[in-house]
Amino acid sequence: IKLAACYILVTPALVLGFTAVAMALPTPADSMTNAGAHGFSEILYAYTSGANNNGSAFAGLNADTQWFNTTIGIAMLLGRFLPMVFVLALAGSLA
């Protein structure tokens, strides 16, 4: 059950973690063209799209910066491979 819970929660944890770090630092927050809740949702959607390997984005976020290219790429890699690790561990525990 723990491995199944980890599988379910790994992607939301990645999205929320990267979004929290991006909002806490001044450089990524400067890339927002909209202030307030809409700017927050642009950053949240950028990391959600990256971690789920979707590839879409809001138009208001200037995501073509070194920060966003690096962190969205890391979120994409972790969002792709960490769930696989948990599924393989779950399969190994059931075998």
TrEMBL record:
Transmembrane spans: 67-91
Keyword field: Cell membrane, Ion transport, Membrane, Potassium, Potassium transport, Signal, Transmembrane, Transmembrane helix, Transport
InterPro entries named among the record's database cross-references: KdpA
A single GO cellular-component term on record: plasma membrane
GO molecular-function terms, A-Z: P-type potassium transmembrane transporter activity
Record's signal peptide: 1-24
Statement: the UniProt record of this protein carries the keyword Signal: yes
PANTHER family, per the entry: POTASSIUM-TRANSPORTING ATPASE A CHAIN (PTHR30607), POTASSIUM-TRANSPORTING ATPASE POTASSIUM-BINDING SUBUNIT (PTHR30607:SF2)
Protein name, per record: Potassium-transporting ATPase subunit KdpA
Gene source species: Streptomyces sp. SID7499
Lineage of producing organism: Bacteria, Bacillati, Actinomycetota, Actinomycetes, Kitasatosporales
